[in-house]
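sry for the spam today, last one i promise. struct tokens for design, 494 residues
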């Protein structure tokens, strides 16, 4: 082969590799990677190609550094001190139906609790973000649920004690405040404008690593998760882990579009499925919590399910849409309006219902007592009904408020000792601690302790103890029998 032929062949090889977009070219037996050699301009090769062929479907690398620099200082670390939670995710996992794994795998992933054995105080970490310069912060309700003390740490290492202004378990939103001024704040965006495939950024404190940034894309919108009927979750593939809970999700404009809340996991850690509460939902909750101290939601009293193609054909729909009514609660606003099982709700108050998850969201936003138009499909025929919206009752704690739960300023659930117990430990009177919370838990009182006296006054009954505490100042001294020892435990009352 002559030198001219070799030159021509090598030159053609360079051009072919450039057109094909290969990562290397071969010239005289040497490999040149794209890192070590200047890239060959494609414009000179594709200058005559149609513009549409070049521009369609292009994706560029995303640099989030400016967003982290600007918004990072407004993302805070939240540490909490609280009681050991009964009925934890681990307990629920043990009791889960093995044939229905999905509810078990959707986890709220914060705070990152370190829980000792027995009914002890727990310490955990979560995240939050500042929405006003005077110290207003948004986070998840489950981050501060049961917390006796909430501490907020800023990126400049300042720490503040925070007050929980309000918490809503149904949306998993909480509002807390710290006593500070001129704080950095985030910019609030519009989650309804998010598009699937759009890049997003999360900042939080996974496993306690403050101000950690992770990125991904919006994987889906309006996801309905088990036991979370009032939140159309944003699904992403952003890496979030324990401690990220309550942290913000940003769009490319640096605006908060969601609050990281749950993950799908079989291991307890990130597995590629993360779920965020839309900021539109969070801000509505925040306003009600600040104005009224609680969240009021509208209610229809129906159970609904998604309409698939088979159901759409069965109920005379031209396409799969709406919310199929599977049951109607007796005496509910829906029953009074004439809603029946088998109806497909297509619209509420002028808003289109494309998916079943859309209905609880729009109904919750309705004002209780207002008359709203309900568009339905029944037996292949369109109908309009008028429903007077009811009010959703607030969610009560699963533990309830029975005598076995901690109550009062001390945070103790106690019962009198029976005669055999009194004789066994050699006391008259005394109260056995069955459960502990609040100030008593912080002071170190434990289940199984026996309260003998308060500030030197012998304790003989539950009502007497309550009266003694109500008349006490900010500090009391409890004489406690624990095992074979009697000790005085100072308790600072709220």
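last one done:
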């Amino acid at each position: 082969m002559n030198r001219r032929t070799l030159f021509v062949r090598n030159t053609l090889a360079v051009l072919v590799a450039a057109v094909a977009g290969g990562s290397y070219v071969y010239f005289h037996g040497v490999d040149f990677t794209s890192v070590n050699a200047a890239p060959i301009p494609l414009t000179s090769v594709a200058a005559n190609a149609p513009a549409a062929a070049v521009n369609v479907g292009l994706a560029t690398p995303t640099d989030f550094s400016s967003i982290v620099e600007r918004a990072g200082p407004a993302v805070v670390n939240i540490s909490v001190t609280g009681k050991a939670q009964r009925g934890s995710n681990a307990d629920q996992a043990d009791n889960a139906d093995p044939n229905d794994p999905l509810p078990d795998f959707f986890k709220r992933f914060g705070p990152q609790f370190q829980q000792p054995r027995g009914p002890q105080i727990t310490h955990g970490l979560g995240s939050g973000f500042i929405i006003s310069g005077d110290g207003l912060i948004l986070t998840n309700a489950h981050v501060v649920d049961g917390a006796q003390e909430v501490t907020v740490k800023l990126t400049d290492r300042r720490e503040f004690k925070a007050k929980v202004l309000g918490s809503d378990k149904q949306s998993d939103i909480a509002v807390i405040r710290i006593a500070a001024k001129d704080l950095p704040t985030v910019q609030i965006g519009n989650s309804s404008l998010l598009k699937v495939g759009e890049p997003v950024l999360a900042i939080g404190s996974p496993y306690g690593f403050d101000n950690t940034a992770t990125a991904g894309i919006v994987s889906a919108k309006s996801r309905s998760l088990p036991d979370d009927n009032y939140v159309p979750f944003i699904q992403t593939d952003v890496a979030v882990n324990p401690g990220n809970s309550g942290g913000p999700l940003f769009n490319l404009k640096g605006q908060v579009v969601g609050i990281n809340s749950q993950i799908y996991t079989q291991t307890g850690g990130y597995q590629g499925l993360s779920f965020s509460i839309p900021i539109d939902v969070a801000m509505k909750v925040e306003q009600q919590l600040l104005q009224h101290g609680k969240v009021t939601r509208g209610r229809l009293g129906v159970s609904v399910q998604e309409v698939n193609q088979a159901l759409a054909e069965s109920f005379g729909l031209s396409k799969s849409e709406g919310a199929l009514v599977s049951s109607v609660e007796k005496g509910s606003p829906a029953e009074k309006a004439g809603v029946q099982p088998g109806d497909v709700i297509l619209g509420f108050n002028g808003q289109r219902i494309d998916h079943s998850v859309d209905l609880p969201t729009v109904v919750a936003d309705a004002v209780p007592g207002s008359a709203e138009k309900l568009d339905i499909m029944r037996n292949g025929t369109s109908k309009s009904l008028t429903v007077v919206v009811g009010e959703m009752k607030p969610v009560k704690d699963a533990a309830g408020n029975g005598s076995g739960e901690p109550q009062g300023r001390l945070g103790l659930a106690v019962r009198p000792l029976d005669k055999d117990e009194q004789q066994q430990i050699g006391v008259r009177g005394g109260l056995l601690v069955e459960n502990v919370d609040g100030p008593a838990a912080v002071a170190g009182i434990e289940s199984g302790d026996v309260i003998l006296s308060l500030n030197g006054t012998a304790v003989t009954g539950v009502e007497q103890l309550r009266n003694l505490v109500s008349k006490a100042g900010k500090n009391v001294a409890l004489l406690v029998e624990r095992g074979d020892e009697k000790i005085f435990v100072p308790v600072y009352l709220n």
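The chain has four domains: 3-55, 63-295, 298-391, 412-492. ok im logging off now
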